[in-house]
Recover the amino acids of this structure.
Protein backbone atom coordinates (compact mmCIF):
# COMPACT_ATOMS: atom_id res chain seq x y z
CA UNK A 1 0.00 0.00 0.00
CA UNK A 2 1.61 3.20 -1.05
CA UNK A 3 0.66 6.55 -2.45
CA UNK A 4 1.91 5.52 -5.88
CA UNK A 5 -0.99 3.11 -6.25
CA UNK A 6 -3.16 6.09 -7.08
CA UNK A 7 -1.02 6.76 -10.12
CA UNK A 8 -3.13 4.00 -11.60
CA UNK A 9 -6.06 5.86 -13.21
CA UNK A 10 -8.60 3.18 -12.27
CA UNK A 11 -7.64 3.33 -8.59
CA UNK A 12 -7.48 7.10 -8.74
CA UNK A 13 -10.96 7.28 -10.23
CA UNK A 14 -12.35 4.94 -7.56
CA UNK A 15 -10.79 6.83 -4.65
CA UNK A 16 -11.49 10.30 -5.98
CA UNK A 17 -15.06 9.32 -6.79
CA UNK A 18 -15.56 8.20 -3.20
CA UNK A 19 -13.89 11.26 -1.68
CA UNK A 20 -15.31 13.91 -3.97
CA UNK A 21 -18.84 14.24 -2.48
CA UNK A 22 -17.43 14.58 1.05
CA UNK A 23 -14.90 17.20 0.06
CA UNK A 24 -17.50 19.13 -1.90
CA UNK A 25 -19.97 19.21 0.97
CA UNK A 26 -17.28 20.17 3.49
CA UNK A 27 -15.95 22.90 1.20
CA UNK A 28 -19.43 24.28 0.62
CA UNK A 29 -20.33 24.23 4.30
CA UNK A 30 -17.11 25.79 5.53
CA UNK A 31 -17.02 28.54 2.90
CA UNK A 32 -20.69 29.40 3.46
CA UNK A 33 -20.23 29.39 7.23
CA UNK A 34 -17.00 31.39 7.08
CA UNK A 35 -18.40 34.03 4.75
CA UNK A 36 -21.63 34.32 6.71
CA UNK A 37 -19.69 34.57 9.97
CA UNK A 38 -17.22 36.98 8.43
CA UNK A 39 -19.69 39.24 6.67
CA UNK A 40 -22.55 39.42 9.17
CA UNK A 41 -21.31 38.39 12.60
CA UNK A 42 -18.07 40.38 12.86
CA UNK A 43 -17.94 44.07 13.79
CA UNK A 44 -16.64 46.73 11.40
CA UNK A 45 -13.05 47.75 11.86
CA UNK A 46 -12.66 51.12 13.56
CA UNK A 47 -10.44 52.45 10.77
CA UNK A 48 -11.32 50.40 7.70
CA UNK A 49 -15.04 50.12 8.26
CA UNK A 50 -16.73 47.23 6.54
CA UNK A 51 -14.06 46.97 3.81
CA UNK A 52 -12.01 44.89 6.25
CA UNK A 53 -14.29 41.99 5.44
CA UNK A 54 -12.74 41.58 2.00
CA UNK A 55 -9.95 39.82 3.88
CA UNK A 56 -12.15 36.70 4.08
CA UNK A 57 -11.89 36.27 0.30
CA UNK A 58 -8.67 38.07 -0.51
CA UNK A 59 -6.29 36.22 1.79
CA UNK A 60 -7.49 32.65 1.03
CA UNK A 61 -7.51 33.36 -2.71
CA UNK A 62 -4.00 34.76 -2.60
CA UNK A 63 -2.74 31.79 -0.59
CA UNK A 64 -4.28 29.39 -3.08
CA UNK A 65 -2.90 31.29 -6.05
CA UNK A 66 0.60 30.56 -4.78
CA UNK A 67 -0.06 27.06 -3.46
CA UNK A 68 -1.74 25.96 -6.68
CA UNK A 69 1.50 26.71 -8.50
CA UNK A 70 3.44 24.67 -5.93
CA UNK A 71 1.02 21.80 -6.40
CA UNK A 72 1.63 22.04 -10.15
CA UNK A 73 5.38 22.05 -9.49
CA UNK A 74 5.17 18.86 -7.42
CA UNK A 75 2.88 17.20 -9.97
CA UNK A 76 5.21 18.22 -12.81
CA UNK A 77 8.19 16.79 -10.95
CA UNK A 78 6.33 13.51 -10.45
CA UNK A 79 5.55 13.44 -14.17
CA UNK A 80 9.16 14.16 -15.14
CA UNK A 81 10.59 11.59 -12.74
CA UNK A 82 8.04 8.78 -12.69
CA UNK A 83 5.86 9.53 -15.72
CA UNK A 84 2.47 8.96 -14.09
CA UNK A 85 -0.18 10.35 -16.39
CA UNK A 86 -2.57 11.20 -13.57
CA UNK A 87 0.05 13.54 -12.17
CA UNK A 88 0.46 15.45 -15.44
CA UNK A 89 -3.31 15.72 -15.78
CA UNK A 90 -3.64 16.98 -12.21
CA UNK A 91 -1.08 19.71 -12.96
CA UNK A 92 -3.07 20.66 -16.04
CA UNK A 93 -6.29 20.65 -14.00
CA UNK A 94 -4.87 22.95 -11.33
CA UNK A 95 -3.63 25.72 -13.63
CA UNK A 96 -6.95 27.44 -14.48
CA UNK A 97 -7.98 27.28 -10.82
CA UNK A 98 -4.76 28.96 -9.78
CA UNK A 99 -5.21 31.56 -12.49
CA UNK A 100 -8.73 32.39 -11.34
CA UNK A 101 -7.55 32.60 -7.73
CA UNK A 102 -4.80 35.02 -8.81
CA UNK A 103 -7.40 37.17 -10.54
CA UNK A 104 -9.71 37.01 -7.52
CA UNK A 105 -6.87 38.14 -5.26
CA UNK A 106 -5.99 41.00 -7.62
CA UNK A 107 -9.58 42.15 -8.04
CA UNK A 108 -10.56 41.95 -4.36
CA UNK A 109 -7.29 43.72 -3.61
CA UNK A 110 -8.18 46.51 -6.01
CA UNK A 111 -11.66 46.82 -4.53
CA UNK A 112 -10.14 47.12 -1.06
CA UNK A 113 -7.30 49.37 -2.19
CA UNK A 114 -9.54 51.96 -3.78
CA UNK A 115 -11.05 53.27 -0.52
CA UNK A 116 -8.04 52.37 1.67
CA UNK A 117 -5.01 53.41 -0.35
CA UNK A 118 -6.98 55.75 -2.61
CA UNK A 119 -6.00 53.86 -5.73
CA UNK A 120 -7.13 50.76 -7.59
CA UNK A 121 -3.63 49.80 -8.53
CA UNK A 122 -0.12 50.59 -7.41
CA UNK A 123 3.14 49.20 -8.73
CA UNK A 124 3.84 47.61 -5.41
CA UNK A 125 6.06 44.49 -5.29
CA UNK A 126 3.29 42.18 -4.10
CA UNK A 127 0.76 43.45 -6.61
CA UNK A 128 3.27 43.37 -9.44
CA UNK A 129 4.48 39.88 -8.64
CA UNK A 130 0.88 38.66 -8.59
CA UNK A 131 0.34 40.16 -12.00
CA UNK A 132 3.46 38.33 -13.20
CA UNK A 133 2.18 35.14 -11.60
CA UNK A 134 -1.03 35.54 -13.61
CA UNK A 135 1.10 35.80 -16.76
CA UNK A 136 2.92 32.60 -15.81
CA UNK A 137 -0.41 30.80 -15.44
CA UNK A 138 -1.56 32.15 -18.81
CA UNK A 139 1.59 30.99 -20.57
CA UNK A 140 1.38 27.57 -18.93
CA UNK A 141 -2.24 27.06 -19.99
CA UNK A 142 -1.56 28.38 -23.49
CA UNK A 143 1.28 25.88 -23.93
CA UNK A 144 -1.00 23.00 -22.88
CA UNK A 145 -3.56 24.10 -25.44
CA UNK A 146 -1.06 24.65 -28.25
CA UNK A 147 0.71 21.29 -28.29
CA UNK A 148 -1.31 18.48 -29.85
CA UNK A 149 0.45 15.35 -28.62
CA UNK A 150 -0.58 15.01 -24.93
CA UNK A 151 2.71 13.43 -23.79
CA UNK A 152 4.79 16.09 -25.50
CA UNK A 153 2.54 18.76 -24.00
CA UNK A 154 2.99 17.23 -20.53
CA UNK A 155 6.77 17.19 -20.98
CA UNK A 156 6.97 20.76 -22.24
CA UNK A 157 4.66 22.21 -19.61
CA UNK A 158 6.55 20.38 -16.86
CA UNK A 159 9.83 21.90 -17.99
CA UNK A 160 8.12 25.29 -18.22
CA UNK A 161 6.70 24.85 -14.72
CA UNK A 162 10.11 23.99 -13.25
CA UNK A 163 11.91 26.87 -14.95
CA UNK A 164 8.95 29.18 -14.34
CA UNK A 165 9.06 28.49 -10.60
CA UNK A 166 12.65 29.66 -10.39
CA UNK A 167 11.89 32.77 -12.41
CA UNK A 168 8.68 33.51 -10.51
CA UNK A 169 10.57 33.48 -7.22
CA UNK A 170 13.33 35.53 -8.79
CA UNK A 171 10.79 38.07 -10.05
CA UNK A 172 9.27 38.29 -6.60
CA UNK A 173 12.59 39.45 -5.15
CA UNK A 174 13.51 41.49 -8.20
CA UNK A 175 10.41 43.66 -7.93
CA UNK A 176 11.07 43.99 -4.22
CA UNK A 177 14.37 45.55 -5.18
CA UNK A 178 12.70 47.75 -7.78
CA UNK A 179 10.08 49.45 -5.66
CA UNK A 180 9.25 49.78 -2.01
CA UNK A 181 5.97 48.28 -0.94
CA UNK A 182 2.61 49.73 -0.07
CA UNK A 183 1.07 46.36 0.75
CA UNK A 184 1.24 45.35 4.41
CA UNK A 185 3.25 42.29 5.38
CA UNK A 186 1.67 38.95 6.15
CA UNK A 187 0.38 39.05 9.70
CA UNK A 188 -1.63 35.90 10.29
CA UNK A 189 1.34 33.55 9.90
CA UNK A 190 3.30 35.29 12.62
CA UNK A 191 2.83 33.82 16.06
CA UNK A 192 3.25 37.23 17.66
CA UNK A 193 0.57 38.79 15.57
CA UNK A 194 -1.99 36.13 16.41
CA UNK A 195 -1.26 35.55 20.08
CA UNK A 196 -1.19 39.25 20.70
CA UNK A 197 2.34 40.15 21.79
CA UNK A 198 2.61 42.41 18.75
CA UNK A 199 -0.53 44.46 19.11
CA UNK A 200 0.29 46.89 16.31
CA UNK A 201 -0.19 44.32 13.58
CA UNK A 202 -2.35 41.87 15.39
CA UNK A 203 -5.24 40.35 13.52
CA UNK A 204 -7.96 40.39 16.12
CA UNK A 205 -9.38 36.99 17.03
CA UNK A 206 -12.79 38.27 15.99
CA UNK A 207 -11.50 38.27 12.43
CA UNK A 208 -8.98 35.48 12.74
CA UNK A 209 -11.37 32.58 13.42
CA UNK A 210 -13.68 33.17 10.43
CA UNK A 211 -10.59 33.83 8.31
CA UNK A 212 -9.05 30.50 9.31
CA UNK A 213 -12.32 28.76 8.50
CA UNK A 214 -12.44 30.53 5.16
CA UNK A 215 -8.87 29.47 4.33
CA UNK A 216 -9.79 25.88 5.17
CA UNK A 217 -12.87 26.16 2.98
CA UNK A 218 -10.91 27.56 0.04
CA UNK A 219 -8.35 24.77 0.30
CA UNK A 220 -11.13 22.17 0.32
CA UNK A 221 -12.66 23.92 -2.67
CA UNK A 222 -9.30 23.71 -4.44
CA UNK A 223 -8.96 19.99 -3.69
CA UNK A 224 -12.49 19.43 -4.91
CA UNK A 225 -11.97 21.34 -8.15
CA UNK A 226 -8.65 19.65 -8.87
CA UNK A 227 -10.16 16.20 -8.31
CA UNK A 228 -13.15 17.06 -10.44
CA UNK A 229 -11.08 18.49 -13.28
CA UNK A 230 -8.56 15.65 -13.16
CA UNK A 231 -11.42 13.15 -13.41
CA UNK A 232 -12.74 15.04 -16.40
CA UNK A 233 -9.29 15.02 -18.03
CA UNK A 234 -8.97 11.26 -17.46
CA UNK A 235 -12.39 10.69 -19.01
CA UNK A 236 -11.48 12.89 -21.99
CA UNK A 237 -8.32 10.84 -22.43
CA UNK A 238 -10.29 7.58 -22.26
CA UNK A 239 -12.88 8.81 -24.72
CA UNK A 240 -10.28 9.88 -27.24
CA UNK A 241 -8.53 6.51 -26.83
CA UNK A 242 -11.84 4.74 -27.52
CA UNK A 243 -12.51 6.89 -30.56
CA UNK A 244 -9.02 6.25 -31.88
CA UNK A 245 -9.51 2.50 -31.43
CA UNK A 246 -12.84 2.62 -33.27
CA UNK A 247 -11.29 4.50 -36.16
CA UNK A 248 -8.59 1.85 -36.50
CA UNK A 249 -11.10 -0.96 -36.19
CA UNK B 1 32.36 25.83 -33.05
CA UNK B 2 31.54 24.81 -36.61
CA UNK B 3 27.89 25.09 -35.65
CA UNK B 4 28.45 28.61 -34.33
CA UNK B 5 30.13 29.70 -37.56
CA UNK B 6 27.39 28.08 -39.62
CA UNK B 7 24.65 29.84 -37.66
CA UNK B 8 26.41 33.17 -37.88
CA UNK B 9 26.87 32.76 -41.62
CA UNK B 10 23.20 31.91 -42.17
CA UNK B 11 22.08 34.83 -40.04
CA UNK B 12 24.22 37.39 -41.80
CA UNK B 13 23.27 36.34 -45.32
CA UNK B 14 20.39 37.95 -47.13
CA UNK B 15 17.07 37.14 -45.47
CA UNK B 16 18.83 35.93 -42.35
CA UNK B 17 17.33 38.66 -40.26
CA UNK B 18 20.47 39.82 -38.49
CA UNK B 19 19.68 43.49 -39.13
CA UNK B 20 16.04 43.04 -38.31
CA UNK B 21 16.38 43.30 -34.54
CA UNK B 22 18.66 46.29 -34.86
CA UNK B 23 16.25 48.13 -37.16
CA UNK B 24 13.38 47.34 -34.80
CA UNK B 25 15.36 48.67 -31.83
CA UNK B 26 16.01 51.88 -33.75
CA UNK B 27 12.32 52.23 -34.60
CA UNK B 28 11.22 51.80 -30.98
CA UNK B 29 13.67 54.41 -29.79
CA UNK B 30 12.54 56.85 -32.49
CA UNK B 31 8.86 56.24 -31.79
CA UNK B 32 9.07 56.88 -28.05
CA UNK B 33 9.94 60.62 -28.26
CA UNK B 34 7.23 60.97 -30.90
CA UNK B 35 4.81 59.42 -28.43
CA UNK B 36 5.74 61.09 -25.15
CA UNK B 37 6.88 64.48 -26.47
CA UNK B 38 10.28 66.04 -27.01
CA UNK B 39 11.05 67.44 -23.52
CA UNK B 40 14.69 66.60 -22.92
CA UNK B 41 14.31 66.31 -19.13
CA UNK B 42 11.63 63.67 -19.42
CA UNK B 43 13.47 61.79 -22.17
CA UNK B 44 16.68 61.70 -20.17
CA UNK B 45 14.80 60.28 -17.22
CA UNK B 46 13.14 57.46 -19.12
CA UNK B 47 16.02 56.80 -21.55
CA UNK B 48 17.56 53.77 -19.75
CA UNK B 49 14.17 52.13 -19.37
CA UNK B 50 13.20 52.79 -22.98
CA UNK B 51 16.50 51.44 -24.27
CA UNK B 52 16.12 48.33 -22.13
CA UNK B 53 12.52 47.66 -23.17
CA UNK B 54 13.50 48.31 -26.79
CA UNK B 55 16.38 45.84 -26.58
CA UNK B 56 14.06 43.29 -24.99
CA UNK B 57 11.45 43.62 -27.73
CA UNK B 58 14.06 43.53 -30.48
CA UNK B 59 15.44 40.34 -28.97
CA UNK B 60 11.95 38.86 -28.72
CA UNK B 61 11.27 39.60 -32.38
CA UNK B 62 14.01 37.33 -33.66
CA UNK B 63 13.69 34.49 -31.14
CA UNK B 64 11.60 32.10 -33.22
CA UNK B 65 14.37 32.00 -35.83
CA UNK B 66 16.71 30.23 -33.42
CA UNK B 67 15.20 26.79 -33.96
CA UNK B 68 12.25 27.12 -36.37
CA UNK B 69 14.15 26.87 -39.67
CA UNK B 70 16.39 24.04 -38.46
CA UNK B 71 13.33 22.21 -37.18
CA UNK B 72 11.56 22.48 -40.51
CA UNK B 73 14.40 21.27 -42.72
CA UNK B 74 15.44 18.49 -40.36
CA UNK B 75 18.79 19.94 -39.30
CA UNK B 76 17.75 19.57 -35.67
CA UNK B 77 17.20 15.85 -36.13
CA UNK B 78 20.70 15.60 -37.52
CA UNK B 79 22.07 17.62 -34.60
CA UNK B 80 20.27 15.30 -32.19
CA UNK B 81 22.40 12.43 -33.54
CA UNK B 82 25.58 14.50 -33.59
CA UNK B 83 28.36 13.77 -31.06
CA UNK B 84 27.74 17.21 -29.51
CA UNK B 85 25.29 17.02 -26.57
CA UNK B 86 21.95 18.67 -27.30
CA UNK B 87 22.36 21.15 -24.46
CA UNK B 88 25.58 22.25 -26.18
CA UNK B 89 23.62 22.81 -29.37
CA UNK B 90 21.13 25.00 -27.49
CA UNK B 91 23.98 26.94 -25.86
CA UNK B 92 25.78 27.52 -29.16
CA UNK B 93 22.59 28.60 -30.88
CA UNK B 94 21.69 31.05 -28.14
CA UNK B 95 25.20 32.51 -28.25
CA UNK B 96 24.91 32.85 -32.03
CA UNK B 97 21.60 34.65 -31.51
CA UNK B 98 23.25 36.98 -29.02
CA UNK B 99 26.15 37.72 -31.38
CA UNK B 100 23.79 38.84 -34.15
CA UNK B 101 21.21 40.69 -32.01
CA UNK B 102 22.31 41.43 -28.43
CA UNK B 103 25.89 42.45 -29.13
CA UNK B 104 25.06 44.90 -31.99
CA UNK B 105 22.25 46.34 -29.86
CA UNK B 106 24.70 46.97 -27.04
CA UNK B 107 27.18 48.59 -29.41
CA UNK B 108 24.67 51.02 -30.94
CA UNK B 109 22.90 51.80 -27.65
CA UNK B 110 25.10 54.87 -26.83
CA UNK B 111 24.20 56.30 -30.22
CA UNK B 112 20.52 55.92 -29.42
CA UNK B 113 21.20 57.25 -25.95
CA UNK B 114 22.21 60.50 -27.62
CA UNK B 115 18.84 60.61 -29.36
CA UNK B 116 17.14 60.23 -25.99
CA UNK B 117 19.34 62.79 -24.31
CA UNK B 118 20.92 60.33 -21.91
CA UNK B 119 23.35 62.11 -19.55
CA UNK B 120 27.01 61.43 -20.27
CA UNK B 121 27.73 59.48 -17.10
CA UNK B 122 24.96 57.02 -17.95
CA UNK B 123 26.62 55.52 -21.04
CA UNK B 124 29.08 53.26 -19.28
CA UNK B 125 26.49 51.56 -17.10
CA UNK B 126 24.00 51.39 -19.94
CA UNK B 127 26.44 49.36 -22.02
CA UNK B 128 27.72 47.45 -19.02
CA UNK B 129 24.16 46.36 -18.17
CA UNK B 130 23.14 45.60 -21.75
CA UNK B 131 26.16 43.41 -22.41
CA UNK B 132 25.37 40.58 -19.95
CA UNK B 133 21.68 41.50 -19.98
CA UNK B 134 21.09 40.81 -23.67
CA UNK B 135 23.02 37.56 -23.32
CA UNK B 136 20.57 36.43 -20.62
CA UNK B 137 17.70 37.52 -22.88
CA UNK B 138 19.06 35.35 -25.69
CA UNK B 139 19.60 32.31 -23.48
CA UNK B 140 16.16 32.56 -21.85
CA UNK B 141 14.63 33.19 -25.26
CA UNK B 142 16.33 30.12 -26.73
CA UNK B 143 14.69 28.08 -23.99
CA UNK B 144 11.30 29.54 -24.91
CA UNK B 145 11.99 28.90 -28.60
CA UNK B 146 12.85 25.28 -27.80
CA UNK B 147 9.52 24.91 -25.99
CA UNK B 148 7.43 26.24 -28.87
CA UNK B 149 9.38 24.90 -31.85
CA UNK B 150 6.78 22.22 -32.58
CA UNK B 151 3.85 24.63 -32.49
CA UNK B 152 2.70 26.01 -35.81
CA UNK B 153 2.60 29.80 -35.77
CA UNK B 154 4.01 29.74 -32.25
CA UNK B 155 5.32 33.31 -32.33
CA UNK B 156 2.64 34.78 -30.08
CA UNK B 157 2.79 31.85 -27.71
CA UNK B 158 6.55 32.26 -27.57
CA UNK B 159 6.27 35.88 -26.45
CA UNK B 160 3.62 34.97 -23.87
CA UNK B 161 5.95 32.32 -22.41
CA UNK B 162 9.14 34.33 -22.55
CA UNK B 163 7.99 37.76 -21.36
CA UNK B 164 7.38 36.74 -17.72
CA UNK B 165 10.79 35.04 -17.72
CA UNK B 166 12.36 38.33 -18.81
CA UNK B 167 11.12 40.24 -15.76
CA UNK B 168 14.16 39.75 -13.49
CA UNK B 169 16.67 40.64 -16.22
CA UNK B 170 14.69 43.72 -17.18
CA UNK B 171 14.29 44.91 -13.60
CA UNK B 172 17.95 44.55 -12.69
CA UNK B 173 19.20 45.76 -16.08
CA UNK B 174 17.10 48.91 -16.15
CA UNK B 175 17.84 49.53 -12.49
CA UNK B 176 21.56 49.27 -13.18
CA UNK B 177 21.39 51.55 -16.23
CA UNK B 178 19.44 54.26 -14.42
CA UNK B 179 21.04 53.93 -10.99
CA UNK B 180 23.40 56.88 -11.38
CA UNK B 181 20.57 59.26 -12.20
CA UNK B 182 18.69 58.21 -9.05
CA UNK B 183 21.91 58.60 -7.03
CA UNK B 184 22.19 54.89 -6.30
CA UNK B 185 25.00 52.41 -6.55
CA UNK B 186 24.80 50.57 -9.90
CA UNK B 187 27.09 47.70 -8.88
CA UNK B 188 24.47 45.79 -6.84
CA UNK B 189 21.94 45.39 -9.69
CA UNK B 190 24.86 44.76 -12.05
CA UNK B 191 26.11 41.86 -9.96
CA UNK B 192 22.60 40.44 -9.65
CA UNK B 193 22.09 40.75 -13.42
CA UNK B 194 25.38 38.96 -14.04
CA UNK B 195 24.33 36.22 -11.64
CA UNK B 196 21.10 35.72 -13.61
CA UNK B 197 23.05 35.61 -16.87
CA UNK B 198 25.58 33.07 -15.63
CA UNK B 199 22.94 30.89 -13.99
CA UNK B 200 20.85 30.99 -17.18
CA UNK B 201 23.91 30.03 -19.22
CA UNK B 202 24.58 27.12 -16.90
CA UNK B 203 21.09 25.66 -16.49
CA UNK B 204 18.71 26.79 -19.22
CA UNK B 205 20.46 24.98 -22.12
CA UNK B 206 19.77 21.73 -20.27
CA UNK B 207 16.09 22.62 -19.90
CA UNK B 208 16.00 23.74 -23.53
CA UNK B 209 17.54 20.44 -24.61
CA UNK B 210 14.86 18.55 -22.66
CA UNK B 211 12.18 20.60 -24.42
CA UNK B 212 13.75 20.00 -27.84
CA UNK B 213 13.94 16.27 -27.18
CA UNK B 214 10.23 16.21 -26.30
CA UNK B 215 9.43 18.17 -29.45
CA UNK B 216 11.53 15.95 -31.73
CA UNK B 217 10.14 12.68 -30.44
Amino acid sequence: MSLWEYANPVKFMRLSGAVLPWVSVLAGVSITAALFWGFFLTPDDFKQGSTVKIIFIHVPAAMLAINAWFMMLVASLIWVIRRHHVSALAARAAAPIGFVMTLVALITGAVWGQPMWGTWWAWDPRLTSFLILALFYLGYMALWEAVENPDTAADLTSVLCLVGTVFAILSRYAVNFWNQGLHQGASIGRVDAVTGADTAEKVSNVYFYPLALSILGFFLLFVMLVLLRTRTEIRVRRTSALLARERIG
Amino acid sequence: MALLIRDLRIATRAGGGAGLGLAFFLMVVILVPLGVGPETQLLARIAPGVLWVGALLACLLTLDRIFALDFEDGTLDALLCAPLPLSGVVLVKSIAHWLVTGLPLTLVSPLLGVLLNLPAEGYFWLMASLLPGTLSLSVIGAFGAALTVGVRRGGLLLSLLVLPLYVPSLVFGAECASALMNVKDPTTPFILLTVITLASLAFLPVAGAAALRANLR
About this structure: Confidence is low (pLDDT under 50) at residues 189-200 of chain A.
